Amino acid sequence: MVRVNENYTLLQGSYLFSEVAKRVKAYQQNNPEKKIIRLGIGDVTQPLVPSVVKAFQEGVEEMAKKETFHGYGPEQGYEFLREAIAQVDFQRRGISITADEIFISTGAKEDTANFQELFDTKISLAIPDPVYPVYVDSNVMAGRAGKFSHGRYTNFFYLDATIENNFKPEIPKKRFDVVYLCFPNNPTGQVLTREELKAWVEYAHKHGSILLFDAAYEAFVEDPSIPKSIFEIDGAREVAVEFRSLSKTAGFTGTRCAYTIVPKEVKVYTKKGHALSLHSLWFRRQSTKFNGVSYPVQKAAAAVFTAEGQKEIKEVIGYYKENARLIYETIASLGLPCTGGKHSPYIWFKTPMDSWRFFDYLLDKVQIVGTPGIGFGRNGDGYFRLSAFGERQNVLEAIDRLKTLSW
Ligand SMILES: Cc1ncc(COP(=O)(O)O)c(C=O)c1O
Predict the structure, then answer these.
(1) Is 262 in the pocket of ligand 1 (CB under 6 A)?
(2) Residues with Cβ within 8 Å of residue 280, at least 6 apart in sequence
(3) Which of 182, 245, 261, 346 to mutate to test the pocket of ligand 1 (most atoms within 8 A of CB)?
(4) C-alpha closest to that of 180 among 151, 201, 210
């Protein structure tokens, strides 16, 4: 008899999107003539842009010849990619991040889930509610959760993002070792201003905390008063780690390439108070447990950071942003309080009934699939997320259907 890792038994239910898929499948089987429009899962629909495809193909060609073949790559990722990221995402924008502080990976999901391994199992954690579920679940798997009671784990402190605080969690009075932040937020689409993010960096300095900042949706931010990176804030280099991804930025959800920035200044401490660099520890972790992203994918990723690539991805982001605007205006016109949709591909709104009932109602009445808010945390109950990653034609059709609903 082999004993299980009991922490896994504390995980709640089936993962959100599998439940969604199950209900959609059942509905389609019972109603084969109905056309379902999917505005649920946060997956992109537009293809890779031409300069990325070209670089990808060139990468594959190189792999086919003895002289240009690549085996295992460098642990942190190819320097040509890390250098391009350092320049385009940071240095050209006046932010001091260097190529050796960037770690290339296959996804921000992996990185946000794995990063907690570097911390003691007893650390105190603050996690937003609602938020991308990976932060909670990966810490449950690691044994930090305590018990599950009334929709929450007893050992986590939840940063409430509610309609009352405009979906911007208040800074806690108490100290927490590690705080997860995600802006633009999934699922609410809410963003923080420079001043608001500065207050979090000050909190981390005051308490000796570490901020794990997920910037997977930074590409949707165009307003200069909203930071795209936590490293735009003075002092963030000592207290923050940032996760970025090409998934939503450049359509890499199926190609897989992301990167995590760990500045050299961030420190963690042994029981005896000896300081260790988080950067060295992440390097050690990655070089032990991860063998890199394929050469053609890194080559394709580097094309995102060329002038042509930047121009092309901006057009695609613009397409999704227009979808977001259309959906947001429709939801608002139905009189449902909503947020997001501006610096984000997500529209988050209050439903006239609980999340899963509204899910079934929307599927049944207008054949639109969205994501029930409860899947992102207890505060998501009574809320719903629509995503702007669909095809324009489907978005327009969905809007027409939504307009027929009355409350
Ligand atoms: C907030 C957030 N972080 C990370 C990810 C995962 O990104 P990746 O595709 O790079 O694993 C997602 C995907 O939906 C997300 O919403």
Answers:
(1) no
(2) none
(3) 245
(4) 210
Percent of the chain with pLDDT over 70: 99
Question: How far is Cα 370 from Cα 355, in angstroms, rounded to an integer?
Answer: 10
Q: Helix axis angle, 50-63 relative to 307-333, nearest 10°?
A: 130
pLDDT of residue 310: 98
Q: Identity (one letter) of the amino acid at 119? A: F
Among 69, 128, 80, smallest CA distance to 104 is for 80
Report field, pTM of the whole predicted structure over 0.90: yes
Would you tell me how many other CB atoms lie within 10 Å of the CB of residue 143?
Answer: 15
Q: Provide the edge-to-edge strand list for the sheet that holds 338-340.
A: 338-340, 346-350, 383-387, 371-372
Closest of 400, 406, 390 to residue 37, by C-alpha: 390
Pairing of strands 125-129, 178-182: parallel
pLDDT at residue 41 in the model = 78
- Virtual torsion, Cα 238, 243, 139, 263, nearest 10 deg: -20
Lookup: tokens for 163: 């309609």
Structure tokens at 169: 């969690």
> Could you tell me if the CB of 131 is within 6 A of ligand 1?
no
pLDDT tens digits, 33-52: 999 999 987 899 999 999 99
Token code pair at residue 250: 């450049």
User: Nearest 5°: phi and psi at 290?
Assistant: -140, 140
Cβ of residue 245 lying under 6 Å from some atom of ligand 1 = yes
Contact 111, 138 (CB under 8 A): no
Give the pair of three-digit tokens for residue 218.
Answer: 């930074």
